[in-house]
Amino acid sequence: MRYRIIDNLNEYAATEVLLNQLPQWRREQALKFRHEQGRRECALSYLLLSEMMGFRPLFGTAEHGKPFISDAGADTNETHFNISHCKAAIACVTDNDEVGIDVECTGRYKERLARYCMSDEELRQIKEAADPDALFTMLWTRKEALLKLTGEGITDDMKTCLTSARATGVRIDSGVNNEKGYAWSVAYRVHSS
User: Fold this and answer.
1) Of 150, 147, 144, 125, nearest to 136 (Cα)?
2) Backbone φ, ψ for residue 41 (5° rounding)
3) Neighbour tally for 58: CB within 10 Å
4) Which residues of the chain register pLDDT less than 50?
5) What is the pLDDT of residues 86-123, one digit of tens each?
6) Strand partners, 184
7) Residue by residue, what is the 3-state secondary structure of 73-116?
8) Positive or negative: CA dihedral 63, 68, 69, 72
9) Quick one: 35 exposed, middle or buried, by C-beta within 10 A (0-12, 13-18, 19+)?
10) 171 burial type by CB count under 10 A (0-12 exposed, 13-18 middle, 19+ buried)
11) What pLDDT is stored for residue 75 in this prediction?
C-alpha cells in the first residue's frame, strides 16, 4: 500500500494548463465542477494518481459508483486506488487490494452533524478534545475512508461503521495537519501471515 498527500496546491501550474494535461474523458469530468478550485483539485488528483501508477489510467465504475482502473494490464500489480481532495490537500492511495482515503478541511464541526454521524463515545471524545474541530474532522475521514474502501460511500450507519463487521481486518491510519488545516485517513486491509 502506498499513499501520498500533497498540500502545496498553489505551487502547480495554472488550472487550464493542468486541464490540458488530462485525457479528454477526465478533462470532461473536471469541467463538470462549477468552480475553478474543484476543477483544479480534480485535475491534480488524477495527475497524482498517474504519477503514482506510472501511467495514465482509464477508469471504470463499480456498483456504488466507486471508480476502478479498467486498463490494469499496464505494468503494475497495484490495480486498486482511491483519491480524495479538498481545498487544502489532495490524497491518493494505491494497493493490490481495496483501499480508501479521505482528506477534509478542518472547520466543519457542527454539533448537529456530529450527533447524526458520531457514536456516543466519539461525541464524548470530541467534546473533551483540546481541538474538537480537528478530532471531529479526523473521525469523519476515518469513517469515509472505511466506507470508500468497502465501496459503499456514506451510509445510514455512520455512527457505528468503525466498530461494525465491515471494519474487521481493516487498519485506518489518520492524521491532522493543523498548519495547513486538514485531516486525512487511509483505510486498507491487514492480512495476517
Assistant:
1) 125
2) -60, -45
3) 15
4) 75-76
5) 999 999 999 999 999 999 999 888 999 999 999 999 99
6) 103, 175
7) CCCCCCCEEEEEECCCCEEEEEECCCEEEEEEECCCCCHHHHHH
8) negative
9) exposed
10) exposed
11) 47
How far CA 52 is from CA of 78, 115, 182, in Å, comes to: 10, 38, 22
- Among the listed residues 57, 82, 83, 84, the one whose alpha carbon sits nearest the alpha carbon of residue 71: 57
Beta strand residue intervals within the chain, DSSP E:
2-6, 59-61, 67-69, 80-85, 90-95, 99-105, 170-177, 182-189
Q: How far apart are CA 180 and CA 193, in angstroms?
A: 38
Partners of 93 in the β-ladder: 3, 82
Beta-bridge mates of residue 102: 185
Q: How far is the C-alpha of 17 from the C-alpha of 55, rounded, in Å?
A: 19
What's at 49, amino acid-wise? L
What are the C-alpha distances in Å from 30 to residues 35, 42, 47, 110? 10, 5, 12, 29
Specify whether the CB–CB gap between 6 and 89 falls below 8 A: yes
